[in-house]
Amino acid sequence: MHHTRRTLIAVSLSLTLTFAPLVTAFAASPQPAKGEHGMVVTAQHLASEVGVEVLKKGGNAVDAAVAVGYALAVVYPNAGNIGGGGFMTIRFKDGRSTFLDFRERAPLASTKTMYLDKDGKPVKGASLDGYLAVGVPGSVAGFETAREKYGTLTRQDLMAPAIRYAKDGFVLEQGDVASLEGGAERLAKDPAAAAIFLKPDGKPYAIGERLVQADLAAALSAISEQGRDAFYKGSIADGIVKASAEKGGILAKADFETYAVRELEPVTCNYRGYEITSSPPPSSGGVIICEILNVLEGYPLSYLGAGSAETVRIMVEAMRHAYVDRNSALGDPDFVDNPVEKLLDKNYAKEIREKIDPFRAGVSQELMPKGFGESQETTHYSIVDNDGNAVAVTYTLNGSFGAAVVADGTGILLNNEMDDFTQKPGVPNLYGLVQGEANAIEPRKTPLSSMSPTIVAKDGKPFMVIGSPGGSRIITITLEAIVNVVDHGMNIQEAIDAPRIHHQWLPDTVYIEPFGLSPDTEKLLAGMGYHLDVADATWGQAAGILVGGKSLADIEKGGGARYNGAIDSRAASGKAIGY
Ligand code: DON
To answer: Domain spans of the chain?
Structure first.
């Protein structure tokens, strides 16, 4: 199926015209990493090494995921965290799967209009900077739950590398330095954050210098010794609550004491014979990926080719329709009734296809539901072990370095996840998402997420592990990686590196990565009525694994590497390591 007309033409031409650029919409990619026993792909090379060491020691993929989660909190401070939250999708070797939701909750004292002034206008920055932006963190509870239920090694074993990197420091490379520079201005505003992440002279660290995080080492050691209570019931919670009270926040000790992880059924769907397992509400990710895939299933994408105007048109329309549902209907399942069954129904996808005009761009305003009143800021990692257990984790502080505040003495950067809520129906958030009542703020509610840690299986066996940061674009990044492998025959690295497009209903714009489409293709799309925005920067940092070969062709041929890992070429400090 992957031998498309276009790729065959490209292959035969490339034999004769070796130097001509033939397919503009493909990135030239390095080879994926290979492994026969395990694979760890994360956004920071030291964390990838930590994961591989755990696997080599006999830990399973969940053990590795927990160790990587704690390690990234130290070596990838812009998104790795214990002051934020996230999701873990697990597919066990026997085919069962589960999902851990350790995302933030709104504080008990939060209110629907907490980010609006007395005239009902959003207060600039209130949901993004400082303590009022902070949701109750879930990462420590999440990792502890994962380890206790599905891991095999001790907490001390899994936390030791993170503690070591915090205490002794680690040497900064180019990607690490770029990230710290990016956060410098916001981090400088909080004395405790500045004391850790900036040099004593207030300047960002340089390549080759060492970042030591002594307070974080102490906090991690306390958790290692006493377990999650050290974070939620002990001095860490006290420190954060005190700082919050002093600096305009509303976090209370009861918020920490009552925090609970939810174990949920993942969302599943079938796309052209591949079984997709992904994130359920409070993420929109799995539902919306499946909704889009269901629509796409009715079109011969493989024949139409990657990056063609027809393929882009179809993908954009599927995205447009699915994001209306995302932004109007979904929210925390403890608070709203999510129409998951309807959105995953193949007949509903057929209804959407019937509404798509084959010649002209759809119009987002016409899809406005009745009564409806960007990056490296998150991180995703993918792991498989020798037994075939697969784990996909996406976790975040939301924006880069979150709310950019650290409570004195804790060393812990806190999230600004509250911005993912609807502050006011119709008002766009950090990612330009225009959302509705289903995602309004309520005490203890979790804001709707786009994070999509996803595992694809084929014939009952793991096939692909995939996910990415990228705010509202996480969904389309993850989706496009799957389509690139399944429909377009790309290898896992090419599938991740290929230029991206994105549409999220509102604004009614097709976002295109730099050099993502040829000028001819753009002209065709503009002629159909699409508003195109060729971005000046790329987005996302996907981390993926393909099992059995690096591409469908490689798998069919037999003899490909068992595990094939790819970190996005857009990622500055990541690494795929197999063994
Ligand atoms: O949960 C979400 O959808 C967002 N908080 C994710 C943020 C993100 O990916 C930022 N990185 N680019």
So the answer is: 1-108+261-404+425-579
pTM of the predicted model as reported, rounded to 2 decimal places: 0.94
Cα of 453 to ligand 1 centre, how many Å? 12
pLDDT 10s digit of each residue in the chain, 579 long?
A: 333 333 333 333 333 333 333 344 455 899 999 999 999 999 999 999 999 999 999 999 999 999 999 999 999 999 999 999 999 999 999 999 999 999 999 999 999 999 999 999 999 999 999 999 999 999 999 999 999 999 999 999 999 999 999 999 999 999 999 999 999 999 999 999 999 999 999 999 999 999 999 999 999 999 999 999 999 999 999 999 999 999 999 999 999 999 999 999 999 999 999 999 999 999 999 999 999 999 999 999 999 999 999 999 999 999 999 999 999 999 999 999 999 999 999 999 999 999 999 999 999 999 988 876 535 579 999 999 999 999 999 999 999 999 999 999 999 999 999 999 999 988 898 899 999 999 999 999 999 999 999 999 999 999 999 999 999 999 999 999 999 999 999 999 999 999 999 999 999 999 999 999 999 999 999 999 999 999 999 999 999 999 999 999 999 999 899 999 999 999 989 999 999
Q: Which two tokens stand for residue 440?
A: 């309004």
**Residues near 240 by beta carbon (within 8 Å), at least 6 away in sequence:** 83, 251, 256, 407, 410, 412, 414
| Cα of 272 from ligand 1 centre, angstroms | 29
**Residue to probe by mutation, ligand 1, list 396, 414, 541, most atoms within 8 Å of CB:** 396
DSSP symbol at 116: B
Whether 400 lines ligand 1, by a CB cut-off of 6 Å, is no
Query: Would you say the CB of residue 448 lies under 6 angstroms from ligand 1?
Result: no
Q: Evaluate whether the domain defined by 1-108+261-404+425-579 bears CATH number 3.60.20.40.
A: yes
Q: Is the CB of 151 under 6 A from ligand 1?
A: no
In angstroms, the CA 42 to CA 565 distance is: 10
Q: Whats the size of the chain, residue-wise?
A: 579
Query: Does the C-beta of 138 come closer than 6 Å to ligand 1?
Result: no
Q: Ligand 1 mean position to 514 CA, how many Å?
A: 21
Please tell me the residue having the least CA distance from ligand 1 atom 5.
Answer: 398
Distance (Å, whole) CA 332 – CA 417: 14
Range list of β-strands (E), 468-554 = 501-502, 510-512, 532-534, 543-547
**Is the distance from the beta carbon of residue 104 to the nearest atom of ligand 1 less than 6 Å?**
no
398, 415, 421, 477, best to mutate for ligand 1 pocket (most atoms within 8 Å of CB):
398
Task: Please name the residue whose Cα sits nearest to atom 11 of ligand 1.
Answer: 377
The Cα-based distances of 242 to 233, 234, 469, 542, 556 in angstroms read: 13, 12, 31, 37, 59
C-alpha distances out from residue 205 to 179, 182, 237, Å? 10, 11, 29
Ligand 1 atom closest to Cα of residue 377: 11
The closest-lying atom of ligand 1 relative to the alpha carbon of residue 399 is 10
- Mind telling me the catalytic residues? 378
- DSSP characters for 182-219? HHHHHHTTSHHHHHHHB-TTSPBP-TT-EE--HHHHHH
At 513, which amino acid appears? E
Phi and psi of 453, rounded to 5°? -65, 120
